[in-house]
Amino acid sequence: MVAGYVVLIYSTLGYVRCFSDSLRSKGILGIVTLAILFLLCGAVLLRLRRLSSLHSRIVIVLLLGISLLSSLFLPFPEERLHVVEYGILGWLLGWALALSEKWPARCWGGVLSVWLIGYGDEIIQWFLPNRVFDVRDILLNGIAGMVGLAIFGIFAREASGERL
């Protein structure tokens, strides 16, 4: 599942710019990216009721709040989608790693994977005529992926009966 998601991210890199330019020309790019970001945060917040620990709920709300607020100050609205796509990637990596018996010991493998996949994303963009390599995007991808991984980790700990 993770490999398929990464292929989806990488295979759409050439088309995303055309799609975002179309939304920008219609004057709706900012609102669409905000809506997608709010939908993802809402989906995570709906799962909060599964958590018994108030501390876990607070940590997740803080992680989402910081991600949401910081994304509002990004210079380009389409950069908000990095928070969404790499947050989901972090969650999926956590889920894949949790299937192994060594979770959470392999969590660092998930962190490394998120950063390498984000770096790969930018390397591919370097070769595309309508895209650019940007170190800030690598940072945004890595941090968003780590937030997704952390949120998954909190849910996984609660499900196993451990406290945060």
Please, could you describe this protein's structure?
The protein has 164 residues and is an all-alpha fold. It has one domain. It contains seven helices and no strands. It is globular.
Condensed summary:
With about 160 residues, the protein is mainly alpha-helical.
Offer a few descriptive terms:
0% strand; mainly alpha
* Number of beta strands: 0
Shape: globular
Helix/strand/pairing class, anyone?
mainly alpha
Largest sheet, in brief, is: none
Average pLDDT: 90
* Uncertain regions spanning at least 5 consecutive residues: none
Terminal Cα span = 27 Å
Instruction: Kindly provide the radius of gyration, computed on alpha-carbon positions and rounded to a whole number of angstroms.
Output: 16 Å
SSE string, helices as H and strands as E: HHHHHHH
What is the share of helical residues? over 70%
Instruction: Count the domains.
Output: 1
Write the layout of secondary structure elements.
Layout: H1 2-11, H2 13-25, H3 29-47, H4 54-72, H5 80-98, H6 107-127, H7 135-160
Helix pairs in contact: 1-5, 3-4, 3-5, 4-7, 5-6, 5-7, 6-7
